[in-house]
What we know:
This protein has 7 helices and 5 strands, in the order αββαβββααααα.
Amino acid sequence: MDAESINCVLELLVEPLQASVPQPTEVVLHDLQRIPDTVRAIAGVVTGRRIGDPPTDKLLERVAAGDLSHEIGYRSQLPDGRILQSTTIIYSDRDGRAAAALCLNTDVSAWVTLRAAMDRFVLGHEAAPAQTQASLAAHRSAPSSGPVNGSEYFPHSVEELSGRLVDAAISTVGVLPEKMRKEHKVQVVAELDRRGFFLIKQAAETVAAALGVTRFTIYNYLNEVNGSTEQSD
């Protein structure tokens, strides 16, 4: 089946699927042929995203890596502290390329709070605090049937996603842009390439501005990262 047909079928499932699962849950269909404006359909309000919004940083990274495996029941956390249990199912087209991602995000914060209250009731006030912290830590970092993913980011615009990825790459290298030598800047570009950043429109211009170089220099760094013999000046 081609990518458009897959997305058309899945689009019909978004609303009924959202209505059939425990609430509050958000069901999102990402059309992976439309990067970066991948959100094609959405039902439910958990992360506040809308049609036309970009993918999460982790989904973009997986697409760039060609990782088409499913992730079931992994944990995420929103900036406001809410804890999510998430599932991402990736569909490929007849040629084996990533075509769509159907994602479910359930806000389980109330269940974590209930667990803490039960801990206080069963264990008493003295023992409960340590148990409550352990419970929160388990929900924030421990997988149920999928990999840990506590840092997934749910952007509302391409600019927001781009800024997040650039900041994360610079942080990984650990050197301020104004103090970077060429090797540091190449490392930033390599990290961004790994994260799928260059699938985003005007990506080279964005990182060039952040690193204080031209976009042509960024292309040269990319060539260097990917093993080309072309080098930057």
